[in-house]
Amino acid sequence: MENLKLSRKLLLISKLVKGKYVADVGCDHAKLLIYLALTKNIKLYACDVRKKPLEKAKENAKKYGVYEKIDFILSDGLKNVPSSVDCVVVAGMGGKLIERIIFEQSFVRNENIRLILQPQSFLYDVRINLYRNGFYIEKELHIIEHRKCYDILVVYFKGEAKEINLKKAVLGEDIKTKNFYDDGFLDIIIKKEGKILNGLKTAKEKNLNKIKKQEKILKIFREFKEKS
Ligand SMILES: C[S@@+](CC[C@H](N)C(=O)[O-])C[C@H]1O[C@@H](n2cnc3c(N)ncnc32)[C@H](O)[C@@H]1O
Questions:
Q1: What is the largest CA-CA distance in the chain?
Q2: CA-CA distance, 102 to 161, in Å (whole number)?
Q3: Which atom of ligand 1 lies closest to the CA of 27?
Q4: Each residue of 11-54: pLDDT tens digit?
Q5: Average pLDDT of the residues in 157-173
C-alpha cells in the first residue's frame, strides 16, 4: 500500500485529537481521518459540504483499507454531524466560516467536546468571538509549512462569555503560547502586518481608526518578539 503523506499541519492536528467520536468538518481528501483510522481505534466522521471531495475521500479511504472505519457525511458545517461527537476538527477554512459552523450548532456548547480549529483568516476576530460566545482557548500552535503560517487552536465551551482586549485577540490569551511559535513565525507575521499598515497609510482614502489599530497590532507583535 502506498504510504500516506500527511502535511505537517495535519500531523500536528492529529496529535491534538482526543476522544472516541471524531468529526473532520471540511475533510476534503480525508487524509487526516485516514491517518487516524490507521493509527487509532475510534469512530470517525468525514464531513464535507461538497459531493466531489467526499467522493475523493471515500476513494482514498478504500485505497488505504480504512473505508469501513469512517462514516462519510454530506453536511454544511455540523448540520448532519451526530451530536455524540466528542472532538471536532474544522481546519483550512476562513475564520468567518469557522465561526458560523461553530456558533450555529448548539450541541458544541458542551464542555466535553474538544474543538480543533485552524482558521485561514480573521484569527483575531475568531479569538474575540470565541470568548464572547462562552468558549475558551486551551492551547495554540503557530506553525510554518512551506513558508506559510498556520494557527491551530484547541477550544472548549466554558459557558462564561467574556470580552478580550486587542492584545489578547492578537497574541492569544495565554502568554505562554510564545513557546508554541515556530522559529521565524513572528518575523513573517510582523512583515505581513507591516505591509497591511503601509497599504492603509498609502491608500487614497485614509481610515485613521484602521491605521491606529494596525499600528497597535504591529507594536504588540514587535514587543512580544523582543520579550520572547
Ligand atoms: C481547503 S479544504 C481544507 C481541507 C482540510 N481540512 C485541511 O485543513 O487540509 C476546505 C474544505 O472545506 C469544505 N467546506 C467548505 N465550506 C464547508 C462547509 N460549510 N461545511 C463543510 N465543509 C465545507 C470544502 O469543500 C473543502 O473540501
A1: 58
A2: 15
A3: 6
A4: 999 999 999 999 999 999 999 999 999 999 999 999 999 999 99
A5: 94
Q: Which atom of ligand 1 is nearest to the CA of 77?
A: 20
Reply yes or no on whether the pLDDT at 70 is more than 70.
Answer: yes
What are the boundaries of each domain within the chain? Answer: 8-163, 186-227
Q: Is the CB of 169 under 6 A from ligand 1?
A: no
Instruction: Compute the distance from residue 195 Cα to the ligand 1 centre, in Å.
Output: 28
pLDDT over 60 at 177, yes or no: no
Query: How far apart are alpha carbons 15 and 113 in whole angstroms?
Result: 16
Among 3.40.1190.20, 3.40.1160.10, 3.40.50.150, 2.60.120.620, what is the CATH number of 8-163? 3.40.50.150
For ligand 1, pick from 9, 50, 118, 149 the residue to mutate: most ligand atoms within 8 Å of CB. 50
pTM of the full predicted structure? 0.96
Q: Which atom of ligand 1 is nearest to the CA of 92?
A: 8
Among 10, 44, 55, 93, say which to mutate for ligand 1: greatest number of ligand atoms within 8 Å of CB.
Answer: 93
pLDDT band for position 173 (50/70/90)? confident
224's grid cell: 512580544
What is the structure's pLDDT at 179?
A: 65
What contacts 100, CB < 8 A, 6 or more positions away? 77
**Ligand 1 neighbourhood includes 28 CB (under 6 angstroms):** yes
The residue-averaged pLDDT of 142-151 equals: 95
Grid cell, residue 28, equals 476534503
Our CA angle for 24, 87, 40, nearest 5°, is: 80
